[in-house]
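Q: What would this chain look like folded?
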Amino acid sequence: MPVRRRKLIVTFPRGVSVLYTLLIACSRPLDQTGRSFESTSQPETATTDGLASAETQPPISGPTRETGAPRRLTVHFYDVGQALAALVDLPDGRHILVDAGDSPKRPGCGVCEARGRHLLEQLRASLRGAPIDLLWITHQHSDHIGGAPEVLESLKVGMYVDNGRDGRRAEVRRARSAAEDRAVATAVVDPEHPSIPIVGSPNLVIAAVVPPAWPPSCSHDPNECSIGLRIDFGSSSVLFMGDAEHDEERTLDPRGRVTLLQVAHHGSETSTTPGFLSKTRPKYAVISAGKPGEGYNREYCHPRAIVVERLTRLFGGPGSRTLEAFDGERCDRATPSDWTAVPTSERLWATERDGDIVLTTIGDGTFTRE
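A: My prediction, written as structure tokens:
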């Protein structure tokens, strides 16, 4: 089937388009590398799946919300089972949703419908009527992109971004069609197009974290094509890794040490290598994974004990809590005895144990749970 090219549609409130044109004429905003974004008057850059690259998009920027309270960056990790969905409240009032959980209609899941309802309910409560300025899909697996159509159909979204791959996969077609139906602008971020369609504000830096080129394993493993996202606010930072595994971790530059890490691939032993941790040196981490034996975690058995232990050592040793983690040889032959209560650091959270996790920073290099 030939790939249908889609036109980029960007809508502005009445009266704003003239002002935007005048502003672009005077100055062109910069991305986090200092390069200028291209204006929408230039032609779109075509990709293999018909999406425009982010370099051709007008940067998303919003008004700074001036209040008497200190500015904060807040990250909501929602309990979506064996999946990932995290909302970032930027200190200037904008919002980024990283991944959208699994499809509520995924066959054989058992809990996906309930988890999908929970995600939409919590997003509405967290956003309080505000839009999602950027929906960032790290890669094209159902537990990350599957819930995107429901998010796009239920909430206002300003921009949809993915890695431009696997356009024939059913879940990818559904997500992109939902964006098109809602006139949501779409863009690609990948090694050839690392600029992102959202700019920072004072004391705020937002950047893609992708390797110089996709590792060879990306051709058969979508996990290795994950597009990471890093957000720095003052001395605090958060890094989203999607499901990036050993090969991609080895080749990408995480842009230095990070304060808060989204643990890749739900705590699988295929990710979060000692080498990667030596580059990032996180102070806090969150694992988004399903409960043992629940939904599709019956097939994956995440997180793995070796990764939980590795992170706990990095954070200075265990505290008073434990986390159920898999310590067997094969998930397809798992028995209850293969799951063990691993003592964990107080700075390591997991949705399977902690439910929804809301972490906040004022930019001082620390995160606290609300």
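DSSP finds ten helices and 16 strands in the chain.
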